[in-house]
Each structure stands twice: as C-alpha cells, then as structure tokens.
Amino acid sequence: MADAAVKTKPEAGAGEAERELTDGFHLVIEALKLNGVKTIYNVPGIPITDLGRMAQAEGIRVISFRHEQNAGYAAAITGFLTKMPGICLTVSAPGFLNGLTALAHATTNCFPMILISGSSEREIVDLQQGDYEEMDQLAVAKPLCKAAYRVLHAADIGIGVARAIRAAVSGRPGGVYLDLPAKLFAQVMDAEAGKKSLVRVIDPAPAQIPSPEAVKRALDVLKGAKRPLIILGKGAAYAQADDAIRAFVEKSGAPFLPMSMAKGLLPDTHPQCAGAARSTVLKDSDVVMLIGARLNWLLSHGKGKAWGEPYSKKFIQIDIEPKEMDSNVEIAAPLVGDIGSCVTALLERMGAQWPAPPADWVNAVKSKKDENIAKMAPRLMNNNSPMDYHGALGVLRTIIKERPDAILVNEGANALDLTRGVIDMYQPRKRLDVGTWGVMGIGMGYAIAAAIETGKPVLAIEGDSAFGFSGMEIETICRYKLPVCTVVFNNDGIYRGTDVNRGGGTDPATTVFVKGARYDKMIEGFGGVGVNATTPDELKRAVNAAMDSGKPTLINAVIDPAAGSESGRIGNLNPQSVLRKK
Ligand code: ADP
Ligand code: TPW
Ligand code: MG
Fold first, then answer.
1. Does a structural domain hold residue 576?
2. 66 & 141 share domain
3. Contact, 58 vs 106, CB < 8 A?
4. Which residue is closest in CA terms to ligand 1's atom 22?
5. Could you check whether the bond before residue 310 is cis, i.e. omega within 30 degrees of 0?
6. Which atom of ligand 1 is nearest to the CA of 234?
7. What number does the ligand 2 atom closest to the CA of 491 have?
8. Does 463 sit in the ligand 2 pocket, CB within 6 Å?
9. Which tens digit of pLDDT belongs to each residue from 91-144?
10. How many whole angstroms separate alpha carbon 306 and alpha carbon 300?
11. Whole domain around residue 188: which residue ranges?
C-alpha cells in the first residue's frame, strides 16, 4: 500500500499533520493483488487506460489484446486452468459489449471469471443524457452472468472485489461482472482507511461435503450395475482432484468416457478408457455415473436412440449444483457436493474390496475399442498431398504423445471433431476447446492465457474459419513472444471449400473463402515464423521446430477442400428445408 499512496498536505489544515491519500485506481489494484491476481487481460481506453498502466507498474502482468472478446476468452480459460477467476478489463459500452460474449461463455461453461469494465456516470446514464459511451452496463450484464455488482464509493472497492471473487468461484463457478464508473477511479480517501477497507477472501470456494446417505445410495446403485459407465466432464477436470478421481475410477473398474475437456484426466490410453467405443458404451451401459458433466445436448440429454432407448438406465450424478439433478432425466442417485469431497467420500466407503464389473461387459467394450482403433490406424498414416484431416492429425497426434505436457487448443468443425477423436491426451487440463456452446473464436485468447498461466508450450489446431475469429491476436502472441504454435487447417472455408453459389451469380458461395489463402504470411508481418505445409512430413517438421524453439509460429496446413463434412460430427443438428433445392 505504501507505494500506492501519496503524501499530501490537507487544504486548510494548519497544524494538521501531513496525511497519506490513496485513490480508486490504487484501491482496485491493491484489492486484486491482495487476492492473488497476477494477470489482467486488457484492452485500454477511457476510463481504464491508467488502471492498466498502474497495475503493470505495481507488478501485475497486464496483457493488452487487440479485441476484448479475445481478452475475455483468455480470462475465462484462466479460470478453468487455475480455479481462480481470470480478470478481463475493458472500456465502457462497446468494449464492455465485446467482452460480454466471453463473460456469458464463462458462465455457460462454469468457469470463474470477472469482467471489470469502466462505465459512464450514473447520473447521466440514468437520465439518458448522452454521456461518452453511455450504456446501463449493469442491467445488460445481469442476465448473462452469475452475479453483477457496481461500486460507487472508493471505500467499497475492497468489498466489491471480494464479492466478485467469491461469487465467481464458490458453488458452481461462473462469470461475474464488476462495474466501475469513471469517477470512482479518481476518488480520493485516506490511505490508512483505504488499506483497512480491503478484503482478503478467506476460503473463497469452501468444500461442499456430500451427505453420507447420498454417498451410500450412489455406491449401492453402482454396485448393482452389470454394465457400468463413468462419464468425466470438464467439471471434474476443473476440480483438480486428479489423484482421487483416478483412484476412484480404477477401483471401480468401470469403463470411463471423457468429455472433450476432460480428456487426459486419466490418459486416453488407459485400459479403462472407452473413448474409442463411445456409441457402444452410451447405448449398452445400465448404470451411468456422471462426474462433473451435464446431460445437455453434448450427451443427447441422456435419452433417445444414442442411449439405447426404449431400454432405460440408472444415473448417478456428482455435481456441486443441486439444480442440475433431474434436469433432463431422473437421477437415481444424486450426489451434491464438490467433486474432490464426493470422490474421496466414495473411495472411503468403498473399502478395500470392491467387486470388478462383469468381465463380459469389460471385454465387450475392449473389443469394440480395439476394433475402432485398428480401423482408424491406417488412415492416420497416409501421406497425401493436399493433406486430409487424418493424415495431418496422424503426425500431430505423435507430437502430443511425445510432448504430453504441451497444451492443445482446438476449434473448428471438422478441425475440432476429428482432432478430438484422433489426438490422445495424457495429462489433465491440457485440452482446451469450444466448450458447451461450440463457440468459434476462443482460439488465440485461450492460447495466450494457456501460455501465460502454465508456462507450457501451446499447440493450437484451428479450422481456417475458426482462426479468423481471433486471428489478429497473433500480433499479441508475437508482441509477448509466447510459445504458441498455431496450425491452421486450411480447407478454403467452413466445413468444405468446394461449395458453389446456388444462385449462379459471381459471388462466392456462403461457406467458402479465398482459395489457396496463405495464413502463414500473416504472422510474418509481426516477426513470427510462418510455414506453408502441404504434406504430413512438412507439417511434422514445422510443428516440432516451433515447439522446440518456442517461437510464435503459424503453419498454414493445406487440407483438401473436399475432405470435410457439413458441420463436422453434428450435421444432424442442421434444420432441413423441405423446399430446399439441391
Ligand atoms: P462437459 O461439457 O465436459 O460435459 P459440463 O460443463 O456440462 O461438462 O459440466 C460441468 C459440471 O461440473 C457443471 O454442472 C458444474 O456445476 C460442475 N462442477 C464444476 N466444478 C465442480 C466442482 N468443483 N465440484 C462439483 N461439480 C463441479
Ligand atoms: C461464434 C458456427 C460452427 S463451426 C464453424 C462455424 C462458423 C467454422 C467451421 O469451419 P472451420 O473448420 O473452422 O474452417 P472445418 O475444418 O470444418 O472447415 N459463430 C460462432 N460460433 C459458431 N459455432 C458458429 C459461428 C460455426
Ligand atoms: Mg475450414
């Protein structure tokens, strides 16, 4: 606090001692530092330019982006990786709105983050008198986040920041909005009183212990299973209870299925991993235990053909959010609590002897899995030029196998679905992707935060369309010299590069881009390394060189424009017009 205060002489205070003052800027920074915030993801401008500068001066790492949405995604994934809220700092109205998509994304994905935005003055906003970048931001943010707060007095900054942190990380994590009007930053108060007003959040995400009855019920249902399945979701990855989860899964002996961002919690090569037999285990299991995974669209809502209906099954669900239970189907054994506490309680109660699941089930899953893996293997070894997805992914798969601590960021349609299916993950929280919404645009923001928060090299596998949503941030990557290797799977467009204008005009089709575009040239303009790769061998050499050197690199991987399929793996979700002309 000492260097954040100024000595001043009181105006009319003959005889009064010199006293130290502080202001809103410094109180915000001190409040964040006091609570362990080390990084702010930022786009400068009125009224927060100086806040960013001063934060940097006071030892917080301030990463300035080119667009708030990307800074917001960086903050969101910081929350997932660290269990502490990632902080995004934006200017008023338009900057705030640009950051809001990421705040809503964080809330949807249960990632803790705080969007701090400067705003205009209440007096003018509320009378709609047309202030600079006027907007009632608090009202706009409210429906899109877990909590929203505004601070009007410097003396309340400590409480405001504390509430934001606790709201973001406790219970089901999510996004929090913190509104700081311009006038607040310059408000002055006594430095000592300011220091006392700050709040360190003690035990921000208290353990939530499940009830013993619920633990017993869950184990009774699991024990009764003939064909058990455990589904691990990104909540399980978030919980950082890696050892307990692994011990539980192994003790249960049940096949497990990792959701996309839970891949690597146990290695995809683990003998119990049923990733390569996904449809079989969903269909044929009789008891399904969900650990930090919701029965949303990604799991066909727990019903229908994918789940083998009309045959029905029993669900056990571990989640910190009680309202999640019975959201789509009946949950026979709800286990409400934090995953670490729940899994530990289960392990304790399972005792030394836990019966293995019937061998015919375990063997059936294994043979399906072996069959699918064998089917895939030759496709991954093809050396076609232009490449198809499998040829390109075959080499990238080996690279991740050899560098299991690297972080994989992934978005696109085919570029997403095929990467998820092909590339095995070996460690927890190494795969970061589009999440619950399947949103395009997370790529460069995630890559930047992953490099900064973990210090590990990052490999971003991006569809050419997906990359375009955040592509300008390669300047940010070059500016901060981050070890990010971006591979753009360039198939000339969205899903495929072969579509034609069905009206016959000269405009290109709605899903295609410039043919033969060279994304690698973009990064060269910022001093990074650009490579055009037309074969799997070239791709492999370029990625290995990038991962070894740690230099910002962008590889334009030329993919056959005809190789992909509409919407990747989820084409069935497209509505079809009965009137559509082929
Ligand atoms: P996926 O997309 O991987 O299936 P979801 O995002 O749908 O995963 O589900 C994650 C779930 O994990 C959410 O319902 C959330 O409430 C829950 N969750 C997050 N953190 C914890 C935790 N520490 N303990 C228990 N549940 C958690
Ligand atoms: C914010 C809709 C889903 S996937 C995709 C779009 C535009 C791009 C697919 O093309 P890409 O991958 O990346 O080149 P590939 O390999 O199949 O060619 N806007 C947002 N989010 C989503 N999901 C979309 C649009 C979409
Ligand atoms: Mg594409």
1. no
2. yes
3. no
4. 338
5. yes
6. 3
7. 18
8. yes
9. 999 999 999 999 999 999 999 999 999 999 999 999 999 999 999 999 999 999
10. 7
11. 22-197
